[in-house]
Design a protein that fits this description.
This protein has 8 helices and 4 strands; from the N terminus they run ααααββααββαα. It is an alpha+beta fold. The termini are far apart.
């Protein structure tokens, strides 16, 4: 079947298909432009995406879902069982990006004054930042104590300096 470049262009304009896809669709439809367009649309609905607007709509829907989940997931600042602040995580993330030093100072001040910082996910799971920071602090303290003990043992063995202790291993 013969068809013109104008027919291929018409199919491309209306469907967003490539020249190859438009040509194949016209061959399948025996040169009928309308049938070729219908063929490509039904093919797109069957799983292959030829139209950028369909992909754009999917991206927008995904972004909407992320923002919705971000607004459901919340950050709570609590003191003595009472909620001092209740912030959607989306707003907290934007604030953290724009005002990082102020946010860090605020978090440290809140934790130092006995507040609890909690993140509540959309599934109801609660992440207590104070527990995480206490665990991290405990791990750091353990590593510092281990390093002190190691240095003391090395120093007793032969007055080793700090610089030398970094290169040597201690027999435990």
């Amino acid at each position: 079947m013969e068809f013109t470049l104008e027919q291929v262009d018409e199919v491309r304009e209306r469907t967003g298909a490539s020249y190859q896809e438009a040509k194949e669709a016209l061959e399948e439809a025996n040169g009928d432009v309308l049938e070729a367009i219908i063929y490509l649309e039904s093919k797109a609905k069957g799983g292959t995406r030829n139209n950028f607007s369909d992909m754009g709509n999917e991206v927008i829907e995904t972004l909407k879902e992320i923002v919705r989940k971000g607004n459901v997931t919340r950050i709570y600042l609590r003191k003595d069982g009472e909620t001092v602040m209740n912030i959607p995580i989306t707003a907290g993330a934007v604030g953290a990006l724009l005002f990082t030093p102020a946010i860090i100072a605020g978090i440290l001040a809140a934790l130092a004054t006995g507040c609890r910082l909690e993140i509540v996910k959309d599934d109801g799971e609660v992440i207590d930042i104070q527990d995480i920071t206490e665990d991290a602090l405990h791990n750091v303290k353990e590593k510092v104590e281990t390093a002190k003990d190691r240095f003391a043992k090395m120093n007793k063995k032969g007055n080793v300096t700090y610089e030398e202790s970094k290169d040597e291993e201690v027999d435990e």
